[in-house]
């Protein structure tokens, strides 16, 4: 896990370090989601384009991708820092 220290301005603003923006593939105009979980601030890029996911499931009942492949695609699109599945009992517990 990487971490950075930033300073909150008098207007409540922070500047994300360049290395962080590059690692998250953020561009000007991208949105971030701020969540508070157990007293910690979680910042997640909101750069999911659901059009990129269209057709992943294919036609029921057998789609063209496995649940693991769908989970991986969603994590890549949504930002892998948004979901930690390392302690989940089953690999398809992303919901």
TrEMBL record:
Protein name in the entry: AbrB family looped-hinge helix DNA binding protein
Gene Ontology terms for molecular function: DNA binding
Keywords for the protein's UniProt record, in alphabetical order: DNA-binding
Domain SpoVT-AbrB: residue ranges: 3-48
Pfam families registered for this protein in UniProt: MazE_antitoxin
Taxonomic superkingdom: Bacteria
SUPFAM superfamilies: AbrB/MazE/MraZ-like (SSF89447)
PROSITE patterns (alphabetical): SPOVT_ABRB
């Amino acid at each position: 896990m990487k971490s950075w220290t930033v300073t909150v301005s008098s207007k409540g603003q922070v500047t994300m370090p360049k290395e962080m923006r590059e690692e998250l593939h953020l561009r000007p105009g991208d949105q971030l989601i701020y969540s508070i979980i157990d007293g910690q601030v979680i910042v997640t890029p909101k750069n999911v384009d659901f059009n990129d996911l269209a057709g992943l499931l294919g036609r029921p009942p057998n789609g063209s991708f496995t649940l693991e492949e769908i989970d991986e695609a969603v994590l890549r699109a949504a930002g892998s820092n948004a979901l930690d599945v390392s302690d989940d009992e089953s690999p398809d517990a992303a919901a």
